[in-house]
């Protein structure tokens, strides 16, 4: 029997070592070297058949490194969408790292599907070569008539505008799994946010021990001690929330709310601990703050996750 904890820890170490050694490697090179493109793809389609623990381990390391790789949308969301409808072509292509994919969830765009022709616009979509869309009760694959890549505040998470004009689609299945696809995306993002928040805490601690004022490390001052202690509690709590996020919709909503705010706080406090140097372009602190800010909108702000959670708590899941 495979020890899932040991496997996740080993995978985490491999991903960290690779990202530290080759931060500029392409997705195909990275995916083929480490085998993460097909992490969630069933073995019969050429994947590893892993689960949430391994996904969280990889996502956390990607968040720590502010990696631009499309693990979230391609290896998690697109794989789950294709797996739910058993589409062998997409699963096989994704498992081998031959291509990337993105998923458009219901409500992410103004789309009209008439017969097998798709028309409309998706104003913001994560980058992916294959485009899978939930529209009119179906999951379809379509080639956009036009793609426009935005120059975003967080350049490590590219976004595109997708346009369709009577575009032929290939039907993959129905839309019964879209909520699960969304929740797994939220879970992977929460793990990324934990990785980023942990890195912010590590940077703050390193600086507090190294930087001296009045002949002492600033980390010896009570105000800094309390700030770092509060951040440690916040990060560890976020890690617990992210670890349970893939269980169900309620857990995903908790993680979506808590991990988002934890990352924003950690990124902001990291800048505060660093002082003036923390707001310079030369220091990486601002890059984590930008990622935290963009992550806070990716699946909706924390308030949206709390609204979904409230529906379960107060209305019994209605």
Count of individual helical segments: 10
Report the major sheet: 7 strands, mixed
Percent of sequence in beta strands: 15-25%
Which structural class should the secondary elements be placed in? alpha+beta
CATH class of the largest domain: Mainly Alpha
CATH superfamily of the largest domain: Butyryl-CoA Dehydrogenase, subunit A, domain 3
- Share in helix: 40-55%
Give structural notes.
The protein is of the alpha+beta class. The chain folds into 3 domains: 1-99, Orthogonal Bundle (Butyryl-Coa Dehydrogenase, subunit A, domain 1), CATH 1.10.540.10; 100-176, Butyryl-CoA Dehydrogenase, subunit A, domain 2, CATH 2.40.110; 178-315, Butyryl-CoA Dehydrogenase, subunit A, domain 3 (Up-down Bundle). Helices cover 54% and strands 17% of the residues. The chain contains 10 helices and 9 strands. The chain has helices at residues 4-21, 27-34, 52-64, 71-85, 88-95, 178-210, 222-244, 249-274, 285-298, 302-315; strands at 101-104, 110-114, 117-126, 130-135, 138-142, 146-149, 159-174, 212-213, 216-217. The strands form 2 sheets. Strands 1, 2, 3, 4, 5, 6 and 7 form a 7-stranded mixed beta sheet that branches. A hairpin with a 2-residue loop joins strand 8 (212-213) and strand 9 (216-217). It is globular. It starts with a helix and ends with a helix. The model has no long low-confidence stretch (mean pLDDT 95).
